[in-house]
Amino acid sequence: MLVFVDWSDDLARLVEVRDGLNVSWAKTEVNVYPEDYGQVASVLGFASANNLSVYPFCMGTNPVGPTVKAKIGLVFSRLNSVLEVSPENLYVSAQSGCPLTSLSAELDKRGLYLPTDYTGSMGGWASTNAVSAYSTWYGMPRELVLGAKICTGDGVLVSSGSKTTKFSSGYKVWKSLIGSLGWLGVFVELYCRVYPKPEVFVSGVGDTSLLNTLLRGALRPLCVWVVFEAGGREALGAVFGGYASALKRINTSLRLSEGILKPPTLEGNIVTVASKKGLESEYAKRALSALKGDVAIAYVGSGVVRLSVKDFSYVEKARRLLGVPIIVERGDYNGDYWGYHPAVLKKLKQALDPKGVLSPGKFCLGHP
Amino acid sequence: MFIWNSCDVVVVDVRREVEEIVGARWVVEGEDAALFGFDAFTAVKGRPRLVALPADEEQTVRLIALLYRSCTPMVFRGSGTSLSGSTVALTGEEVVVSLTRLNRVYSCEGLEIEVGPGLANVLVTRHAPHDLFYAPDPSSYTVCSIGGNVSHDSGGIHVPKYGSTFNSVVKLRVALCDGSVEDVGGTPYFNGANIFVGSEGSLGAVLRATLRLHPRPETSRTVLGAFQDVASTARAVSAVYEEGVIPAAVEMMDRNSIDVVEKSRYKAGYPDCAALLLVECDGYTPQVEEEVRRVRLVFERLGGKVMVPENPAENSRLWLGRKGAFPAMGVVSPAYLTLDSIVPRTELASVLEEVGRIAERYGVMVANVFHAADGNLHPLIPYNPESPKSLENALRAGWEIVEASMKRGGVPSGEHGVGIEKARFMHQYYSQSELEVLWRIKRAFDPDRLLNPYKMLYENPPETGDRVVSLLYTKPWEAE
């Protein structure tokens, strides 16, 4: 049943309005379902003009940070198309609500792939700058998103970046939105770099003593991760991709098998820790101890470590001890989820969401 | 010199206060300052009011705060190799803040190296552990500095595999106009460094950059393909990728650029052809061997003649010709323009045909030598620096090339930045509402518009009295 509030009738003239959301990661009074970019702009323009808070989301598979309470839930599920796949130019363009599973299926038909193991929508992938095992070689969405159509908090549609591999023609607005969790603006369409799918994938598991050889040696694996458990167990995994003739000549003490092995999925309370690139294992061990965590995964080469923890009692202490950003990614925490509040982020907020309607409280304490 | 300004009621003897911060020895004025008045975009020469060379981060921050407080426009500058005129002090009011003395290497751990903005690109790899290297390598890499690379998001020949400077920037320390310093980036989720890369010194100054290093490849092999028509050459670029090859570099040279190189000290012994491709494959040896085999097959299938250098000397010679193609232009002209618009790879043949027609229409020789895998054109257009008419002719030809690229889904600049050179295209490439969003970002960081004025964004053209400058700032639809 629709919740009637004084502004919802006006909103319903712009876009379909339905009941809001009441889940652990977001609470909204109503949800809206735009079917084109103009409707997204209209909703945000309306919200900005009427000081109504907005929480953009799609599949809700990977919520990050504190629970958001907003008047309007902006749902991207109907903007879900793959628009263009270009095997010659190695890019794909898709709407932000497109599930990565659908995108991967389309790419697979053309012998291409987007190197990530994220499950969720394109917009979610970019907005969370989601780390994955593939970040070792290919980087994160920050590196893979070539350009986008975005919408600012006050409803201005902007094309930023392009489908080309390089862009030095104005501020990289779309890159600033990557990882900003919908706090600065929203993606409506993304252009991403894709790669020819390797002829063969080979995965290996082995001892962590092989880490340096894998990271800095000749083999250049696509993925390397190390899992640390509280009891002291450690395991290293790696994935190689390439021509069959080449991969059969790999000489390593890893136990190899054909296919793609994935790192384990973390459950429960999750904390993300920033690391120097290439030193993720050291940071993971220190963070596991400082946070009294259960499991830590070092995504080698990415600068990111993720841990599952029983609770968040040690977060502040760990921040002081390790001196690096430690973020409460998922779970109820009554402290500061981020621990850092860059002035640059606030300046961008002022420029891109001047009324502060998007994802209130998501990023900075004391800032909309 | 005393100034009274509208943006802040502060009366400051700028010259004296700058000297107090950096020391008299590091303040340059008059004729000597003219040396800091131009960069590699040779069409425009500026007149810095003053040049200050701070010794360290602390001096730089104080200097920026002073200049901002006193409403003095400023231009941040490194080695002065910008090809878009981003470091030119255009109006004569700007103080040039030269960051060349901030050239320290602070640390190197894991896959990261932390350096000052004044460090030359080439020195990053030299300071890295022997098994790692810094990938972005613009053609001026022996002299261009990291601060400039970050500010322009510079590329180079190895972008196809390793990405542009953006992909190698992990973190930045930036000085903002209010004298605050912020360490941005190096964080999961939001990365505050993103907005500064390619911002051409218009949002703040880069004081320090943490850069990503890559493992050195075990093997690196070159394949040269010589083709009898440009269309097949362009087609071969996409075909290489269709074979599953991810080359480290794919460079294209047309007949004009080959002729120029062969007449110069960079002579490489290239075959007589309409165009050639130089492809570099690197990485794990068995993978590279297979890639080389496939690249050869692609070239042969498309009618190309294939050369694979048999020894390091031959390999170096082939690449020296490519890397020397810009300076080799000296054999045909003392000055030339270098553009860098970019198109999707599949548009290469079409845009190159159009470049040929434009060259014919303007009566100029255009040499094309460029990053083919990125679709990043580098038409070199020679002009006579003594003849304003010759320069104007070259500029107009260049503008048409940029427009032809944009019509084919491309963008005005892939790696040189907008600067002065392409400022006029901002009004063509972006809609008015999009430009307003860019201005909102500019104003959030630089409310008084004192950081690198008239570069990338401008409201009204600068009043310099220089005909070339006024031509460059004429919006396309206002042109005669």
How would you describe what is shown here?
The complex is a heterodimer of chains A (368) and B (480). Chain A has helices spanning 8-12, 37-49, 100-109, 122-127, 135-138, 141-144, 173-177, 211-216, 244-247, 280-290, 315-322, 343-352; strands at residues 17-19, 22-23, 26-32, 54-57, 68-75, 82-86, 91-95, 112-113, 145-152, 157-161, 185-193, 195-196, 200-206, 223-229, 234-242, 255-258, 269-274, 293-299, 304-309, 326-330. Chain A is of the alpha+beta class and 368 residues long. Chain A has three domains: 8-75, Uridine Diphospho-n-acetylenolpyruvylglucosamine Reductase, domain 2 (2-Layer Sandwich), CATH 3.30.43; 82-196, Uridine Diphospho-n-acetylenolpyruvylglucosamine Reductase, domain 3, CATH 3.30.465.10; 200-329, no CATH class. In chain A, the strands form four sheets. Chain A has an eight-stranded antiparallel sheet. In chain A, strands 1, 2, 3, 4 and 5 form a five-stranded mixed sheet that branches. A five-stranded antiparallel sheet of chain A has the order 6-7-11-9-10, sandwiched between helices. In chain A, β2 and β3 form a beta hairpin. The longest helix of chain A has 13 residues, at 37-49. With 480 residues, chain B is of the alpha+beta class. Chain B folds into four domains: 2-98, Uridine Diphospho-n-acetylenolpyruvylglucosamine Reductase, domain 2; 105-215, 2-Layer Sandwich (Uridine Diphospho-n-acetylenolpyruvylglucosamine Reductase, domain 3); 219-328, Alpha-Beta Plaits (2-Layer Sandwich), CATH 3.30.70.2190; 333-417, Alpha-Beta Plaits (2-Layer Sandwich), CATH 3.30.70.2740. Helix content of chain B is 34%, strand content 19%. In chain B, the strands form five sheets. In chain B, strands 17-14-16-15-19-20-18 form a seven-stranded antiparallel sheet, with helices on both faces. Chain B is globular. The chains are: A alpha+beta (368), B alpha+beta (480).
